[in-house]
Amino acid sequence: MFALTSTCSYYLRHQPTDMRLGINGLSGLVRGQLHRNPTSGEVFIFINRQRDKTKLLRWEKTGFVLYYKRLEAGTFELPAWDKKENSCRLTWAELAMIIEGISIQQIQRRKRFSPKVGALGRRNYLFAGSHEAAQRSAMIYTFMATCKINHVNPYEWLKWVMVTLPDTKMSELENLFPANFAKSHPEIEPVAS
After folding, report:
1. Which of 39, 103, 115, 188 is the 20 to 30 A CA-CA neighbour of 61?
2. Domain of 166?
3. Cα–Cα distance between 72 and 53 in angstroms, integer?
4. Is residue 24 included in any domain, yes or no?
5. Sign of the alpha-carbon torsion through 115, 121, 125, 128
6. How many domains does the chain have?
7. Are 45 and 87 in contact (CB under 8 A)?
């Protein structure tokens, strides 16, 4: 589904962009000038020289989505940025203010709670950057939490898995779980919770 939310990462290209460019041309700018992957799921924002047109490019699972907005009056206000950089990262709120014509120069942010990036659980979906990255992160966190529950040193377990995995049959993958590692390696000192 087409959606731009606060869970997306947003990057604004600083240089004015030719609005005749389509998906392929904008993807080339993302790779060549912003040095980012256009299929990462991040949202890339391009504004023309007159600052009355913008395009947003995003990859969503099966293909690119290109948003285009042309102002009938007024211009988009650009945030201040480091002139050495090709782009700046924006929040969803900043993007919404730019699109809606709200001045972002005088905005003062009030203090809000922000969960720690390293916290376990579903909150990590907010920080992973893409659905696939979130799934991979959740899998690693699950294994680390399982190590902790079974009093297994995660480093020793992971070393053992990397050595053992190539010779393990698919039907025996369960033997690589941290709980089974603790049973088969009593000589390794258990880790306290």
Report:
1. 115
2. 122-184
3. 9
4. yes
5. positive
6. 2
7. no
Domain-located, residue 2: no
Question: Could you tell me if residue 192 is inside a domain?
Answer: no
Q: Cα–Cα distance between 117 and 124 in angstroms, integer? A: 7
Residue 39 lies in a domain: yes
DSSP 43: E
pLDDT more than 70, % of the chain: 85
CA 139, 142, 145 angle in degrees (round to 5)?
155
Backbone angles phi, psi at 5, to 5 degrees: -135, 180
Report the C-alpha gap between 43 and 170 in whole angstroms: 38
Tokens 């730019």 -> residue: 98
Residues 86 and 145 in one domain: no
Under a CB-based contact definition with an 8 Å cutoff, are residues 66 and 57 in contact? yes
pTM: 0.57
Burial class (CB in 10 A: 0-12, 13-18, 19+), 25: middle
Residue range 14-25, pLDDT digits in tens:
999 999 999 999
Q: How far is CA 144 from the centre of its chain?
A: 21
Q: What are the beta bridge partners of residue 53?
A: 70
Q: Are 44 and 34 in contact (CB under 8 A)?
A: yes
> Residue 46: what residue type?
F
CA gap 38, 57 in Å, rounded: 8
